[in-house]
Amino acid sequence: MARTINYREAISEALAQEMDRDQRVVVMGEDNAGGAGAPGSDDAWGGVMGVTKGLYDRFPGRVLDTPITESAFVGAAIGAATRGLRPVAELMFIDFLGVCFDQIYNQAAKFRYMFGGEAVTPVVIRTMYGAGLRAAAQHSQALYPIFTHIPGLKVAVPSNPYDAKGLMTAAIRDDDPVIFCEHKAMYEVTGEVPEDAYALPLGEAEVVRDGDDVTVVAIGRMVSVAEQAADQLAGDGISCEVVDPRTISPLDTDTILESVEHTGRLVVVDEATPRCNLATDISATVAKEGFGALRAPIEMVTAPHTPVPFSDALEDLYVPDAQRVANAVKATVGYERSGA
Amino acid sequence: MSGIRPVVMPKWGLSMTHGKITEWLVEVGDRVSDGQDLAEIETDKIAGTLESNQDGVLRAIVAEAGRDAPVSGTIAILAEADTPEDEITAAVAEAREQLESGEVAAESGPVVEAVEVGGRRISSAVLGDGTEPVVLVHGYGGDKNSWLFVQEPLSARASVHAIDLPGHGESVKDVGDGALTGLAEVVLGYLDARGLGSAHLVGHSLGGAVVAQAAATDPGRVSSLTLVAPAGFTTEINAGFLRGMAEAGSRRELKPHVAQLFADPEQVTRRLLDDLLKFKRLDGVTDCLRTLQGTLLDADDHQAVDTPALLAKAEVPTAVLWGAADQVLPVPQQHSPQVVDGAGHMLHMERPNEVVQAVLAHLPG
């Protein structure tokens, strides 16, 4: 039905369509236009991964280059949002949140609450996360749980091009600050994406595969890893239902619980480090709300509690893969209650 | 070629590259007639029944039930009862080798293009290069892909255009005031844009009323009409279905409404719901569907359209088909439509060959 484009093009198309539709949408970040003060479009390489390439010529004056000062331009984007623009700021690597976190968690996230609902902060902060690109400990983390922890922020983690376009469109149209997390190893992933604009609801999980034996909830790039595992397990006669939350704040716990009520088993796959991540959060929710449905202990497949290693061999071991997911599924399917 | 006629994996829809035979409905040695059900085939999008497009004896099955085969790959051999066995064996061997090696000549499939009609984008899928043009017009909430089982068999004899009405598929998401006359102008404008003087028009449901209106507006351009469960033949209509289709926001909400389209609710696959939901989420679609409800319904939730009155204005050969188990538009007691058992509102998906034969009956030769 639709044409096939990649994750990068899907995000770029959402930005372009919303900039077309709404004059208040502006894009800002490092290297959007070839460095501060650089003239013309020749150097406008559209951010470090080229996601905003092409927008500079199409939308004069609305693609803003910034100095390498996240604290300043993220703050500027948030301030502009409170005054009527709808900025999309690019925090190049999620690892850099440390230098601009006050602006995000103690300012943007609080305005709606502290001003009696009178203030809105329609800002989107695009940021790259994830390991696998040999970028070492300071450029490879999956830090989205930190934003998920903060009330007042919405957090999207699209796992495919279709969702990336629809969630970006929804993020821009939403009146709350949205942290939009793009996995840096996914920009070349392709999929069917309609040319027309569309918004996906923020807070609606997608059951990407129906199954009967075990629910596998996976976040972001881990969705494709879970699907690989599910393909492999289907050959062993194990049927996995794969759930992609799509946004981790708000989190669609209803869909997750409904699936666990059907399968009786849960595996959560999260690329983030294991303490206070989405795996523990979703597991705790299901353990409390879905206890009666569970037929086996919940399994969590996550990165280990260490920085991302620079060694290629260790980095490959660090990120959850299909084999680890399959092993966790087999552990929960094969579980037998002792003494029963 | 001593009468050997391969049965090939069909291409149902734009994205189908391969299909799996789930069941053979005929056995080796059976005499098969044109239009007879041969096999159940499943794709990642839809399950359907492959019907024979020729007479003959099923001499060999190349791809057994449970096997995957690429589009255009030979899955069985039809021939005459007296075709020598060694010729059959050779044909099977060649076909098996093709399946194993995966070297099957790719079927080109429909060409999807958009044309400008009155400054608005109208998308269509075109298949076949016959001299007779056939234009397929879907119903409320449908799109050009709903003709997937009809377009391919028709393409052997005609150039077949499946169009997306405004507000649907990949066409512009703007139906204006939603009036039937405006939608009919789009169909006639499409003929202009494609350089077609006249065409055989086939319409389903709302599309049936649209093509009838096109014939009333400009009868000289309409060679024939084939109306599949067309709107406007009775006063009753399932208004709850129309509203549900427009308002449902999730797969779960959508499913019971979509199930009313088919005699067998098992026909509603997850991919069908997914594709429908993706369509409904496009900007402007919900408004378009709401506007079209105003075209279809009067203030009492009865049908607002009078299609027989439109047909009376145009002397055009017309066939009307209906699924006996239609839960959206009941089978009319008058106008004696051809009623097909075992089918619901989506007759062209459920019993496609009946629709194909009705259209072919209008073509010369």
Write up this protein.
The complex is a heterodimer of chains A (340) and B (365). With 340 residues, chain A is of the alpha/beta class. Chain A folds into 2 domains: 4-192, Rossmann fold; 206-333, Rossmann fold (3-Layer(aba) Sandwich), CATH 3.40.50. Helix content of chain A is 34%, strand content 19%. Chain A is built from 12 helices and 14 strands. Chain A has a 7-stranded mixed sheet, with helices on both faces. In chain A, helix 7 (161-173) links the parallel strand 6 (154-156) and strand 7. In chain A, helix 9 (253-263) packs across helix 10 (278-289). The radius of gyration of chain A is 20 Å and the shape is globular. Chain B is built from 11 helices and 16 strands. In chain B, the strands form 3 sheets. Chain B has an 8-stranded mixed sheet with strand order 9-10-12-11-13-14-15-16, sandwiched between helices. In chain B, strand 13 (199-204), helix 4 (206-217) and strand 14 (222-228) form a beta-alpha-beta unit. Chain A binds chain B through residues 1-2, 162, 166, 192, 194-201, 204, 207, 210, and chain B through 13-15, 143, 145, 169-170, 173, 249-251, 270, 275, 278, 281-284.
